[in-house]
Amino acid sequence: MSFGRPPSISTGFQATPPDRGSFPLDHYGECKASMIRYLECLKRNSSASSECRHLNRDYLNCRMQNGLMEKDEWKNLGLANLAVDDTSQGKT
Fold it and tell me: Are 46 and 60 in contact (CB under 8 A)?
């Protein structure tokens, strides 16, 4: 009898990767300003993300432009209904 180990480990636990792959950290702070603006907006609005979606789009766009996440269409990220100007589009 073994104590301190969950029984599932002995049955061959299999790790699965995340659905959208890895999400690398921003070690060089390339998108830190966008992230801070988004977090401050969430704080001001009691974590109501609907008020800060435009800042979320800007943050994700920064990550896509700097190779910190794979480029994807806004509709796949749940941000298709936001007006996007030509300078901040991730993928057309």
Answer: no
